[in-house]
Write a structure and sequence with these properties.
elongated, mainly beta, 148 residues, binds zinc ion, 2 helices, 11% helix, two-stranded antiparallel ribbon
């Protein structure tokens, strides 16, 4: 996910839109046994401003894993908006990402946003009834007799 700011400057424009689809390692996902269903999609606009570059847009991903209540397959979809500053100054600024040689690499930022947005639990459906704690029956499918 690298954008060549030199090319953009050279073309005389101050802004460009971008769209990337990139496969990220499933190891990024903090949920057990989960994987990305599709490549992560990143769409946005890059704006030049002196030594800085502003990147804003949306990250979209979907993850498939086990429902935290019943362990059946569950899909989690998320759209994250971002609005970040990239600086090519040598001094590190904790509020900004850095770039060098005119190349802005969005991958690290995208990774961070994905990790921060990851839920602790996912569900096959909002009202998943889960498993019976006594007999382990999937209560979405059957009614066990434990409660009677
Ligand atoms: Zn479930
Ligand atoms: Zn039961």
């Amino acid at each position: 996910m690298v954008i060549d700011v030199k090319k953009l400057k050279f073309s005389g424009k101050e802004e460009c839109s971008f769209h990337f689809e990139e496969k990220f390692d499933d190891g990024l996902i903090t949920l057990p046994d989960a994987k990305f269903l599709t490549p992560v999609s990143v769409t946005g606009t890059l704006t030049l401003g002196g030594n800085e570059v502003y990147a804003e847009g949306e990250i979209e991903y979907s993850v498939e894993g086990a429902c935290s209540r019943c362990a059946e397959s569950a899909v989690f979809q998320k759209v994250i908006t971002f609005d970040e500053v990239y600086s090519d100054s040598e001094e590190a600024d904790p509020d900004k990402y850095s770039f060098a040689k005119g190349l802005v690499d969005l991958s690290e930022m995208v990774k961070e946003k994905i990790v921060l947005s990851m839920p602790f639990a996912i569900f096959c459906k909002d009202d998943c009834k889960g498993l019976c704690p006594v007999c382990g029956a999937n209560l979405n499918i059957t009614k066990c007799k434990c409660k009677e």
